[in-house]
From TrEMBL, chains A, B:
Listed Pfam families: ADH_N, ADH_zinc_N
Keyword Cell wall biogenesis/degradation: no
Domain Enoyl reductase (ER): 14-342
SUPFAM superfamilies noted in UniProt: GroES-like (SSF50129), NAD(P)-binding Rossmann-fold domains (SSF51735)
Keyword terms, alphabetized: Metal-binding, Oxidoreductase, Zinc
Keyword Metal-binding: yes
PANTHER family: ALDEHYDE REDUCTASE (PTHR42683)
Cofactor(s) for this UniProt protein: Zn(2+)
Protein name (Swiss-Prot/TrEMBL): NAD(P)-dependent alcohol dehydrogenase
Organism, scientific name: Gangjinia marincola
Length: 351, 351
């Protein structure tokens, strides 16, 4: 059993007191990774604050992990020492249920092992995430990073990236489709990049006129201000697909009205009750609302390969581990363009 | 211009005072129909009461029309005098927009002409429905009735039938699928019959244990009482498709939880706000909610042919025109198994 340094947080802000967390010795199917960068996801903060219940302390967050292979088990031939690899939201699943067989491990019927705050299958206790120096992961859950991508900007692809790529990919967004991306944050900015790279006509839909310029820089063809009723009314019934990244409950009716007949709006952010939806808005035009959760491992690798091909990374601000509490505060206030990534060298230097 | 007798209703109950309504002389593309039977739909009552706004008085309701061809225009060769025919919710559409070209006239982008209470394209004023002796309809909106079907029981197929058949057909319900039909009324009882005829394992989902026996008689394999939390919990994640016929706003979350991964619940009844839906219930399992509205003319004919093949009609109670106000009262109280149909001979006898 090896020990590494990591940080926990509980209600009061995280401090830099060292804690030892257990990492198993690599089995023959495992990859041992030195973590170089780790993205900061809003769900890290939710889990630190136990907003969803069930948080286990110490929480070591982090599921947007980029690192280098330092050791590999005897059965691992797909990775070499020194390879740049990624680890996302999951580190294991049953591999036998119908969801796993369909390459949708995120819906594993026996419960996927999430990268942190899940029951640890190998050791007592729970899993610890990527705000850490190393991690040991089953080879099936390790992703190959395209060599041309900047590893710092690539970290958020492992959660924000796949969360937005998967619905666009699954619902077959393609050249010429008119796609609306609702909400410009960590998820929304990736949604714009992906939809644009897929050849769609991308409309950024936001409450904030001041975000227009940046949305266009990211690849949006148009910006639609959702508070402008006239502008919304003009675009009614014109969208082939809507990717709704708003992270809180809200009134979805004005967005449903933007959909074409038979078109779908996919929710990826609002893990809470949404305001009353008018049944008539679905019935008129046979419209659809769906949800989507990250993506399976196979699709995550497809997403990374797509990013390699189109040179897509996240717009990030690199921080030291010591800055995490300020970063959380700024993230909560929506003051980050568009993702914080922790340089793990700062943690190594501190210890 | 011919005149026929019909009845209007406005806030106060309909009386049997004769009114003259305009029916155009058949054009070369028209079919003139003697109405024999007309189903009574809940939306007739909504329009009589102006619940949705926009009702034009006198309202002559009725869009589940069965009759015999009495005259046909010169360009009509698909119907002969004496043929049994049906007319549903629509009597015309633009025939040129993308919805019409896709055989989805119910979503005509220029506005389909509904059988009653729509702008009349040929005469001043609005359209009058099937609580009447005759009707003149463009040949494209006249349906052929299979000869083996009892015309009385076939009347409700034109609205309640297509409303439930269309989503089952469009979402490709097939042999062995586990299908839940939510709500046992005029729509729900047709949903059970269709899903069973398609070879599905049909579960009637209802709040009312007393409906169990009848649901099984109609073709349900199982009955699930939605107020029984244990029973609902046991069936979580097990349904391939849900047809939700509840006609009012309600909490859809317990039903969404019944869906399998990637499965859809289609709403056909609730043309009003539904209670807050938890985004997480869609996100976990990539589930979908959609709406559906009647069906296009081509699909309506497919539905009728399917009914002919499987000998499916509605369970009805035949009434005289003079009984309509009592029928409305009973319909509002849910006391009809499962559809009233007016024998139009009673109207002819009265005049």
């Amino acid at each position: 059993m090896s020990t590494v340094k990591a940080y926990g947080a509980k209600e009061e802000k995280a401090d830099l007191k060292q804690m030892s967390i257990d990492r198993r010795e690599p089995t023959s199917d495992d990859v041992h990774i030195e973590i170089m960068y780790c993205g900061v996801c809003h769900s890290d903060l939710h889990q630190v604050h136990n907003d969803w219940g069930g948080s286990k302390y110490p929480v070591v967050p982090g599921h947007e992990i980029i690192g280098k292979v330092t050791k590999r088990g005897d059965n691992v031939d797909s990775f070499d020492k020194g390879d740049w690899v990624g680890v996302g939201c999951m580190v294991d699943s049953c591999q036998t249920c119908s969801a796993c067989k369909d390459d949708l491990e995120q819906f594993c019927e026996n419960g996927a092992t999430m990268t942190y705050n899940s029951k640890n299958k190998h050791l007592d206790g729970h899993t610890f995430g990527g705000y850490s120096e190393t991690i040991v992961v089953n080879k099936e859950f390790v992703l190959k990073m395209p060599e041309n991508l900047d590893p710092k900007g690539a970290a958020p692809l492992l959660c924000a990236g796949i969360t937005t790529f998967s619905p666009l990919h699954h619902w077959k967004v393609s050249e010429g489709d008119k796609v609306g991306v609702i909400g410009l944050g960590g998820l929304g900015h990736m949604g714009i990049k992906f939809a644009a790279a897929m050849g769609a006509h991308v409309v950024m839909i936001t409450t904030s006129p001041e975000k227009a310029e940046d949305a266009k820089r990211l690849g949006a063809d148009e910006v639609l201000i959702s508070k402008d009723e006239d502008a919304m009314s003009k675009q009614e019934g014109s969208f082939d697909f809507l990717l709704n990244t708003i992270p809180v409950g809200h009134d979805v009716n004005p967005y449903v009205n933007l959909l074409k007949r038979d078109a779908t709006m996919v929710m990826v952010g609002a893990i809470e009750p949404i305001d009353p939806l008018h049944g008539g808005n679905l019935i008129m035009g046979r419209k659809r609302i769906a949800g989507s959760l990250i993506g399976g491992i196979k699709e995550t690798q497809q997403m990374l390969d797509f990013c390699g091909e189109h040179n897509i990374t996240s717009d990030i601000e690199l921080i030291d581990m010591q800055d995490i509490n300020d970063a959380y505060d700024r993230m909560q206030d929506g003051k980050v363009k568009y993702r914080f990534v922790i340089d793990m060298q700062s943690l190594k230097d501190a210890n």
